[in-house]
Every structure is written in C-alpha cells, then in structure tokens.
Amino acid sequence: MSHTKNLVYYKTDHEIGLMREAATLVSKTLTEVAKVLKPGMTTMEIDTLCATFVKDNKATLSFYKYRGYPHNICASVNDVVVHGFPNSKPLKEGDVVSIDLGVILNGWHGDHAYTFVIGEVSDAVSQLIRVTKESLYKGIEKAIVNNRIGDIAYAIQEHTEGKHRYGVVRELVGHGLGKHLHEDPNMPNFGKRGNGMKLKENLVLAIEPMINMGKKEVYTDNDGWTVRTRDGKPSVHFEHDVCVKKGKALILSEYSIIEAAELANPNLTASPAIAF
Fold first, then answer.
1. pTM greater than the 0.90 cutoff
2. φ/ψ (deg, to 5) at 268
3. Distance in angstroms (rounded) separating the CA atoms of residues 76 and 254
4. Which of 105, 95, 69, 66 minimizes the C-alpha distance to 84?
5. Most buried residue among 4, 39, 100, 268 by CB atoms closer than 10 A?
6. Cα(241)–Cα(20) distance, rounded to whole angstroms?
7. pLDDT tens across 40-93, in order?
8. Is 13-264 CATH 3.40.50.10490?
9. Are 237 and 166 in contact (CB under 8 A)?
10. Is 222 left (phi over 0), alpha (psi -120 to 50) or beta?
C-alpha cells in the first residue's frame, strides 16, 4: 500500500498516547484471533471477527476501501507475503497465517501484524518465524533519536539475510503512521547503517519485516493486491507501531497479550516472546 502524504509528522506526547490506544486496539483484536484460530476456520471468518470487534470498540477499519482494498484485514497464508484477501478456504494444520490489521480510533491509526502457526510445522518454518520476529526487535532497538532509517533497516537485514540467508522483500516497506495510514518516511527492511533520514523524537513508524524462507523475489496476483513469493516458499510478517525516543524506543502496540492467547490455544504453535 503506497503513500498518502509526502510529509513527516512529529507527534506531541498527548497524540502519542492516543496512537498507543489505537495500536493497542489492534493488538487486542489480534488477541481475539489468537484465541480462536484453528484448523477448519477460514480467513473470511477472521475478517468478520476482526471487523466486529473493532466496531464494538468504537473504532473504524483502516484498510477497508483504502485505495480500493475490498476487505477489512489482510490475511496472508504460507507463500503470500502481504495483502492477501480473506477467503472461504478452510485453514489447515501447518498453515502459516499472517493477519495484518489497521484501525482508526480518535482520528489516529494503529496498524500492525502478527504471524500465527496452525498446529505443527517443520523446524525450518519455526526458525523463519522466530528469526523474523527477532529481526523486528533488532530494528526497534535502533529506533532512537539521532540514529537513521538505515540503522533500523540494516539491523533487520543483517539478522535475516546476513545471518540466515533469508530473502528480504525489496518491493514492500514499512512506513510512518499517524493521522494517515501511510506517512513519510518509508521504512525499508534493507539498507546501510548511517544512511537515510535522521530520527527525531516522537516520529511514529510501522516497522514490519517481510521475510521469505527462500529468495527475495515476489510477484503480485491478478487481483492487484496479493503479493506472493516467486519460489512458492513461505513468508513471515511481523509489525509493530514504534515511537522514536531518546535512548530506547517506545513500542505502542502490545504483543504480550497476543502471545498469551497463542500459548493458551492448543491449535497453535506459539512463537517465542522476545524481551525488549
């Protein structure tokens, strides 16, 4: 999904508080998914569940009709990297399911994603999920005042492509977030240390590694949205909403509640929680 505005917006502390509420609602919605996800469920059912929960919490859905996108969530299964359309195909044991969701609450966007595993998967897939999640936090560690966009990007790329030889998708990037779903700057998952825009306090970024088990190359389906790995291997997507601060970044979204629900669901294999 591409840019709405070519401007960088720095938020006030009050606005960051409102953004945290929006981000937390996304986390709570993804927690509802984690509670019920199981073989036989469809991604269209997840779409309905998410839409109902968001509306019950007095918020609206960011993705629906955004640039013509026809659904409430993105549900990307196995070789789908991002922007997968929810459908009525039953999910099965071994599926890797990324749910990406945006909400608007009090005029501010929350937007993040989590990848779930239904049942048992191979060690190779488990490692891809763990390493992608780790890379998100490696990037977040660099989201501090006076660092640069390239420092975040390099940290993600080094952990995934450098250490593990995974494919880091080039065509899709994270982004600034605020009153608009997509604000400047672009936040790639590949780059050079010391390059790019200097980070200032209260810039909010959606940092979102999209990491392929195989090669980095992707293609888009005929629907104009669904992005798949060219080699058909699985891809994993994790995303947090992050506020740049001095010394240590502030994560506005909340994985711990999703992780707790994931652990409690016997139909899911939980990915390890990462201390930050």
1. yes
2. -115, 150
3. 21
4. 69
5. 100
6. 8
7. 999 999 999 999 999 999 999 999 999 999 999 999 999 999 999 999 999 999
8. no
9. no
10. alpha
